[in-house]
Each structure stands twice: as C-alpha cells, then as structure tokens.
Amino acid sequence: MVLDPLTIGMLAVLAILVFFMFRNSRKRQREAAELQQKVQVGADVMTNFGVFGTILDIDEENNKVQLETSPGTVLTVHRQVVTRVIDDHDADVSNDEGDTDTEASAAEPAFGASTTEPAFGERIEETAPDSKPTTSGPTASKTDKVDE
C-alpha cells in the first residue's frame, strides 16, 4: 500500500485532533475532581444559575446539596448545580475590580450634570429664542393647485 502526501497529512491532522480530545477530556475530569474536593459543608459556592450560598448539608446518596442563600432561606439543589467554590482569593479579585470601577466613575460627571458635550443620543436644538421655527420642504397653501 502506497501512502501519498495527502493521506499522510490527513492522518497527521486526525492524530492531532484525537490527542487534543483526550487532553481536553482529562483536563475537565481533573477540574471536576478538584471542584468535588472543594465542595464541603460550610463552603461558599455559586450555582450554575447564579445563586450564591453556603453549603449546609450534602446528601451523597441522593446527590442533593442544601444551600443557605440568606439567613433562614435554604434551597435544596442537585449536587451538579454547584459550579464554583468561592475562595477568599476570588473575593479579593472582585473587590479590586470594583475599586477600579469606582475610580473610573469618579472621573465621569454625575448623572444629570451639565457638560459641554451632549450625551449619546441626546437631541440638541439650536434655535434662537426670538426666531420663529422654520419648516423644511415645500408647503402647500390654499392658493396652490393640487393635481388630482
């Protein structure tokens, strides 16, 4: 059997794709195992639909987790819904990002403050207070004849 360069190239690309598929699969399995190790009673977590809470109880048999979202409010969710464990490092990063937002907003004028440039989409009328409004285009008067 003779292998031409095109067939060798296609087999090489196929081998590379298979390699990356296995690599990605192992990476996902490792991340899932790390997450499951971090999911413990008392951990602050986020669910895949954006609800933050603290784990009160984990039911291994039924794959259920009880989350306390606010004092007195307990949600029972499936264990796979917990997608992220909130660490102290994550909270520090979000606080740092919040600080930069407040610095940027301090440089901008407050809402409703007068500026020399109009806001995006704001209409500006440049008519003098003593002049009459002008109309654009032809206007019909009573003396004009209309072709019917």
Structural key phrases:
single chain, 148 residues, alpha+beta, five-stranded antiparallel β-sheet, 2 helices, 20% strand
Computed Rg: 33 Å
The major sheet is characterized as: 5 strands, antiparallel
- CA-CA gap between termini: 86 Å
The total beta strand count reads 5
Outline type: flat
Q: Can you tell me the residue ranges where pLDDT is under 50 for at least 5 consecutive residues?
A: 100-106
Number of helices: 2
Query: Major sheet: order of its strands?
Result: 4-3-2-1-5
Structural class: alpha+beta
SSE map:
Blueprint: H1 5-38, E1 44-47, E2 52-59, E3 64-70, E4 73-78, E5 82-85, H2 88-107
Antiparallel strand pairs: 1-2, 1-5, 2-3, 3-4
Report on this model:
- With 148 residues, the chain is α+β, with helices and mostly antiparallel strands.
- Helix content is 36%, strand content 20%.
- It has 2 helices and 5 strands, in the order αβββββα.
- It has helices spanning 5-38, 88-107, and strands at residues 44-47, 52-59, 64-70, 73-78, 82-85.
- A 5-stranded antiparallel β-sheet has the order 4-3-2-1-5, with no helix packed on it.
- The radius of gyration is 33 Å and the shape is flat.
- Mean pLDDT is 77; it is low at 100-106.
